[in-house]
C-alpha cells in the first residue's frame, strides 16, 4: 500500500500543499476552518508527516538520538521509559540504537545518530572517549546519563554512587555482617564512585574492604563468585556481597546457588539500580534505588532547554539514591 503524501492530503482537503505544510507545522497563520479540513483529510488518508523531512524543511529538529550502552540491562529500559514520557510532553521524538558496550561500536552508533541531524543526542552510560563526546557536542547538544563530564557543552544526569554504595554497607553492617565484599563494575563509569563509597564505608566501620573486579553483566557477576570460591575457604567465605548493579547481582546469586550456597541464609546480596528485574517475586533483590524514570525525564528536559530556551550553561543533575530492602539480605549465621 502506497504511503499517502502531503499532496494527497491537499487534494482531499481542496487546499494547496503549502497550506497543508503550515497546518502540519502548527502555524498560527491558518484559520480554524481550514485547519480542521486539513486534519480531517489527513486522518481519513492515514497520513503521518515524516519527522526527518519536517526537521530538514524547518531547519530545526525535534528528533533526539538516544544511544543505549547495553540493551540487555533493564536499567536502561526503565530510563528510556522516562525519556519517552518526557519526549511526548515536550514534542520531541526519540530514535534509539546501541553500541553494545564497545567504544568502537559506540563511535559508529553515534555517527549513525548524528547522520539524522538530530536536535540533540542522549548517551546512556557510554564508554566512548571524552574527545568523541566533545566532538559530538560541537555538532548538537549532548546529555550524558550515568557518566560525568567537565565540558560546558555537555549536560549530565547521575545518581550519587558513593552514597548508594555506603547505604548498602550500612544496611549489611546493621544486620551484623563483617565480611562484606564489593563486586564492582570494572570499566563502567558508574563503578568508581560506588567503589569509593563502599571502601569509605568499610573503613568507617573498621572493616577490611575487599573489591573483586567485575563488570555490569550477569556473566561477570557469576565469574566473580567463582573467583571468590577459589580465594576463600568455607570458614572465612564472605557473608555478604555488594554488587555493582542488579544484573551483576543476579549472576552472582545464580553462581552461589550452583555452589550450594543459599541467599540470604549463607550469603546476603545487595544489587544497585532497583530495576524491574530486582522487583520480580522470585528474585526479590535488596538493592539501591536510582530514580530511573526521573533520570530519563531530566535528561530529555535538559536537552529541551538547550533546544527551546537557548540555555548554554551546563546542567549537572545528581540524584540521591535510597535503599530498598527485599529478601536477599539477612543477619549472618555466624
From TrEMBL:
<keyword id="KW-0804">Transcription</keyword>
<dbReference type="Pfam" id="PF13377">
    <property type="entry name" value="Peripla_BP_3"/>
</dbReference>
<dbReference type="InterPro" id="IPR046335">
    <property type="entry name" value="LacI/GalR-like_sensor"/>
</dbReference>
<dbReference type="InterPro" id="IPR028082">
    <property type="entry name" value="Peripla_BP_I"/>
</dbReference>
<keyword id="KW-0238">DNA-binding</keyword>
<protein>
    <submittedName>
        <fullName>Substrate-binding domain-containing protein</fullName>
    </submittedName>
</protein>
<keyword id="KW-0678">Repressor</keyword>
<keyword id="KW-0805">Transcription regulation</keyword>
<dbReference type="GO" id="GO:0000976">
    <property type="term" value="F:transcription cis-regulatory region binding"/>
</dbReference>
<dbReference type="Pfam" id="PF00356">
    <property type="entry name" value="LacI"/>
</dbReference>
<dbReference type="InterPro" id="IPR000843">
    <property type="entry name" value="HTH_LacI"/>
</dbReference>
<feature type="domain" description="HTH lacI-type">
    <location>
        <begin position="4"/>
        <end position="58"/>
    </location>
</feature>
<dbReference type="InterPro" id="IPR010982">
    <property type="entry name" value="Lambda_DNA-bd_dom_sf"/>
</dbReference>
<dbReference type="GO" id="GO:0003700">
    <property type="term" value="F:DNA-binding transcription factor activity"/>
</dbReference>
Amino acid at each position: 500500500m502506497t504511503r499517502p503524501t502531503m499532496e494527497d492530503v491537499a487534494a482531499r482537503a481542496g487546499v494547496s500543499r503549502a497550506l497543508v505544510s503550515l497546518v502540519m507545522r502548527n502555524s498560527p497563520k491558518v484559520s480554524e476552518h481550514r485547519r480542521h479540513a486539513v486534519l480531517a483529510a489527513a486522518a481519513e488518508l492515514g497520513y503521518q508527516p515524516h519527522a526527518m523531512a519536517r526537521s530538514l524543511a524547518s531547519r530545526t529538529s525535534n528528533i533526539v538520538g538516544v544511544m543505549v550502552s547495553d540493551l540487555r540491562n533493564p536499567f536502561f529500559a526503565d530510563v528510556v521509559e522516562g525519556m519517552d514520557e518526557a519526549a511526548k510532553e515536550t514534542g520531541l521524538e526519540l530514535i534509539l540504537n546501541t553500541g553494545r558496550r564497545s567504544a568502537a561500536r559506540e563511535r559508529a552508533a553515534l555517527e549513525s545518530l548524528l547522520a539524522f541531524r538530530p536536535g540533540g543526542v542522549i548517551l546512556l552510560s557510554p564508554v566512548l572517549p571524552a574527545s568523541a563526546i566533545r566532538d559530538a557536542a560541537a555538532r548538537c547538544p549532548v546529555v550524558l546519563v550515568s557518566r560525568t563530564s567537565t565540558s560546558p557543552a555537555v549536560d549530565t544526569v547521575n545518581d550519587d554512587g558513593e552514597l548508594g554504595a555506603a547505604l548498602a554497607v550500612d544496611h549489611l553492617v546493621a544486620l551484623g555482617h563483617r565480611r562484606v565484599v564489593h563486586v564492582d563494575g570494572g570499566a563502567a563509569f558508574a563503578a568508581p564512585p560506588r567503589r569509593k563509597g563502599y571502601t569509605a564505608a568499610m573503613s568507617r566501620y573498621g572493616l577490611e574492604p575487599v573489591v573483586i573486579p567485575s563488570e555490569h553483566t550477569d556473566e561477570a557477576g557469576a565469574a566473580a563468585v567463582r573467583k571468590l570460591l577459589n580465594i576463600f575457604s568455607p570458614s572465612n567465605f564472605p557473608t555478604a556481597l555488594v554488587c555493582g548493579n542488579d544484573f551483576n547481582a543476579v549472576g552472582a546469586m545464580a553462581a552461589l546457588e550452583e555452589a550450594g550456597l543459599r541467599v540470604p541464609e549463607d550469603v546476603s546480596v545487595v544489587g544497585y539500580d532497583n530495576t524491574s528485574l530486582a522487583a520480580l517475586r522470585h528474585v526479590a533483590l535488596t538493592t539501591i534505588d536510582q530514580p530511573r524514570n526521573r533520570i530519563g525525564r531530566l535528561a530529555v528536559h535538559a536537552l529541551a532547554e538547550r533546544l527551546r530556551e537557548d540555555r548554554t550553561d551546563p546542567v549537572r543533575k545528581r540524584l540521591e539514591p535510597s535503599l530498598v530492602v527485599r529478601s536477599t539480605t539477612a543477619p549472618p549465621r555466624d
